[in-house]
Amino acid sequence: MTDLFNLTGKRTFITGGSRGLGREMALALAGAGADIALVARPSDALQQTAEDIRALGRTAWVLEADVGDPEAADAICHRALEELGSFDILINNVGGRRVNVPTEDLDLLTWREMMHLNLTSTFLCSRIIGGAMIKAGKGGRIINIASINAMVAGRGIGGRHYETAKAAVLQFTRTLAVDWAPHGITANAICPGLFATEPNRKWQESNPEMIERLVADIPMGSMGNPKDIGALAVYLASDSAGFITGASLVIDGGYTCV
Q1: Among 133, 170, 196, 233, which residue's beta carbon has the most beta carbons within 10 A?
Q2: Does 235 qualify as catalytic in the annotation?
Q3: Is 114 within the bounds of a domain?
Q4: What pTM was estimated for this model as a whole?
Q5: Annotated catalytic residue within 13, 111, 123, 162
Q6: pLDDT tens sequence across 67-125
């Protein structure tokens, strides 16, 4: 069975790979044999994740950049291709709500910044890294991290730029799937619900009532384990998922079922 998900020799470019779901996906792919280019803002967490990947016997490249800045995203993608060569797997993971402001109070500058973070970064990395996959002619895998909020509005929270951008990520993923299928490239989206990531644990400390309310609506009865995202990413990145493209896979403990 392990051969079905073997990623030995595959090269992965992942944004937001230093913490949370990005870290778990990076470690899971490395555990399956992939080498990983970690793209994130400079931090101790970024260096630690790279060390943990190397401890698994895989290569980890550290690429420090804030891909929420379009110019920085463009530059780091081109730099990676020039210095490292093309990639087999692209995971567009960077993103977040960050701003909890009602729509009537949300200024245009913040809207644009958040759309760059959650949507433009996905477009740019796909265009550049995915475009290099086309030129390489070996096929590839693109995994875009969306959210259940691409399909349902978050309850009791502002920052609707997030729902809007993540919904656009789903449709952009479908267009990639259709356009790039002739090149042997699949494009799929993962839509996580509430997971016990570091930001959500901090949120739980500062606003326990909201987390309790959200968890109460999850049939599985708890926040998700971030490692579960890693397993799904390995599957989508593997040859076993070669006929899955344009899909949006929900992983939320049943939250969107009720």
Answers
A1: 233
A2: no
A3: yes
A4: 0.95
A5: 162
A6: 999 999 999 999 999 999 999 999 999 999 888 899 999 999 999 999 999 999 999 99
